[in-house]
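batch job 7 of whatever, protein = Protein kinase domain-containing protein
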Amino acid sequence: MFNGSLPVDTALGNAMPNLQGLRLLRNNLWGEIPPRLFNSCSPSLQELDLSWNSFWGSIPSSVGNCSSLKVLSFSRNYLSGYVPGEIGSLFQLESLILGDNNLSAIAQELGSLTKLTYLDLKRNIFSGKIPDFIFQLTALQYLWLNSNNFSGTIPPELFQTLTTIRYVDLSNNALVGDLPQTLWNLTSLRALLMARNALTGSIPEEIGNLEGLQVLDLSFNSLNGSLPSSIGKLKKLLWLMISNNSLTGPLPNDIANCSSLLWLNAAHNRLSGPLPDRIGDIGNGAEITFSENGANNSPLPDNAGDCSFIERWLPTDDGFNYNIQYSIMDYGACAAMWNNFLGGRLVLGGSSCLTQLNFTTSAYLQLSNNEIVGSIPKSLASFTRLSFLLLGDNNLTGNITQTLGTLPLLILNLSSNQLDGSISPLLGNLTCLSVLDMSSNNISGEVPMELENLGQLYSFNVSFNPELEGPIPKGGRFPGFQLSSYLGDVKLCFADGVIRQEIEAAPRTCPNNTLKLNTEPVETRESSYQHKISKPLDKYMTGGVVAGLAVAGLVVVIGAVGMWANFTTFRQKQGPASRRAGSSELDSLMAYHKHAISEKWHVEMYDGRRRGWLSYADLDWATCNFNDKKLAGKGSHAEVYKANLGGGVVLAVKLIEFHSGNKDDFLSHVRHIASLHHPNLLPVIGYFSRGPQHLLLSPFMQRGSLQDLLRDSPSVIDWQRTLSIAHGVASALAYLHDDCKPQNTIVHGSVKPSNILLDGLFKPYLADTALDRAVPVGVQPWQAPVQSYYAAPEHAPALEPAPEGDVYSFGLVLLELATRKTHQETAYGLVKRARRVAMGERSYDRDDGGLIDSIVRRTCADVRLLFRFLRVGLLCTHDDASCRPSMDDVAKYLSELKTEEDRSLPCIYAASA
């Protein structure tokens, strides 16, 4: 690996007159690219690749002197400013790869590149309309403009002149308006990605003209109307993503003619009607398309393609983060990944059960959160590659067809429908099944003992199916499932010795020598429940709730009122006829529910679930009536409770109380923060308020806060995790400052270890985004002494927080991660000491004076990376706010450090002299 800067006085043509290609990618080169380097270029130089380094500054215009270049790549650096017009004089250029920089403008002269076939401008900061010069690139086949801030409508000329275009990615911009009519004439188009814009209008019938299309992603827009029947003409379509729009009507029957279609995601729309009878016919002809692709692979540059592309389809629904592992997800293999994807070699990791089935490519059908009716078509049995079937939150009826037991399923989610009948024992044949969710239906009968054969099953949920009865299997994976898997199933029994004490009183033994859920009369515990329900919303409980609790003769387990409230909330789509007739127990519980969780007790959800999916009664039960034993943490004006809702759903419920201020303003702020989406931002997925109390819902983070880990278990955060945590938080802040929409800049205002939460895999999530400024209390948290440690020196209580303040606070977090010195030193002392160590008073090969934590020292790969990490923290904590880097620059630099980390080498510290 090369380190340092490029020589400023060397010209390529003079130093290497016969040079044909120069590849300096993936080194530790930094500084500005010297303009003199290109003053003289070898006439034979055809490839120049400086990607994956740390160059900053502008692209030198002298690169236009290298007139024989065919490939020019400056991607994955920190280059900024203007793409010079002199590049337009490189008339032999075929590939121009400038993605992942900070470039903001581009010269129109690039329209002279008539041989250009590949243009990559993704993940920069270009804005305004799509540049006109692109219309002149008539040989262009691959166009990557994604993840910028292009706005306005998509110009019709873009597709009118680019008649040979094959791949177009315009996703993650701010484009508006309808899809242009000229788009539907591009018969050579194979991949069209326009996700995450603000596109409107409908998908026209003319889409059927694109018969060679293989990838279509229009998700996360505002498209309306129905999916046209002409979609059935796309017989080579492999991947169709139309989720999170406003599409209506049924899936057209002609979609069954999409004989190559393996990945279909139409979740979170308003689709209605039944599933097509022949839906199982999709995907059966995929091998033909794969064979054609394998025989006609188009040449791509070695570093072409977007390596994040393939991850977009991965199902992360139902809390199941099913990560497909690729051996080629690294630099230099993006083109290979494209070819593997289009050639059907979408290989799962070695631990995947699918490898036992000799599958190279599996199928994914995601239609959750729609209004689909009817039964599950038996034709699904012919969809022999189907591994992910997600049909939850619809209005499906009928039996769970036995034919599902013949599919190679990994995930099966049929929850929140109106399915009835019994569970087919044939589901026990799904030996690869990992997730099985049939909760909130009308299923009856027993849980088949054949399900004990599901050796890969890690999540099982049949809760809120009150007609399920008999013993629960006690073999296989069943002893490990939580009681929440069976909530609301009052007829189910547990075998002796299997149930774990997860409720306040153990159920008694059933007559058949098993343990049953409904054992203890309500009146024996009425006072206990009523005492608990007073916290925190007792003043707002209606008289009808208390009346419902007072009905005598109910026979339920401790907490069953909460369970049945839960059941009825989840089961809103069921009518009384679907429940057991003549049951005074059920009628009384329904009377309670009618009062307790009427509309005003519903939680407002922001994660796509309908209002009414969750109620306050659910949260009250799941937190043991907000009991201290469920308390997960406390802040300056909030308490956080752990709420296990069943089915693997565990939430953090933040309880905030304020008596003054505008509740509507606070709700508006909550909704705005809930609209933000970034992999390292803790999402706000729900909100409920009554009077002065406000509940904010987020996923529960298993490992708590970074502050707690640094204090209580610092040894679990080694160098690799330190770097990963830092990069994740930096990425989240960069998103808030530069990328989130519709507001261009959001200041977090409270960056500190206690607001950095970690999941079970140590993935970091930045919490409480701008929350301090939204809570109308007398003393804001940033004025409190605990926050002053992390506040920038220029900050004053009367000033609104600025992005530079977030940068400063983040810099202190970096220094704490590296040193683990939190309470021993003041912020200024830590910064001063780190500056002395990292900026020259101690060199790389000398002792650091005990500043860097021993775990970090011992587990890092290269001591130089540690010092570079420290220097990032010092740059962020510069006394002059104008001298601090942007969070986008910081995130990119930390990404480079992650790339360079080599875990095979220990850090070596020489003893100080």
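notes: The first strand starts at residue 3 and ends at 4.
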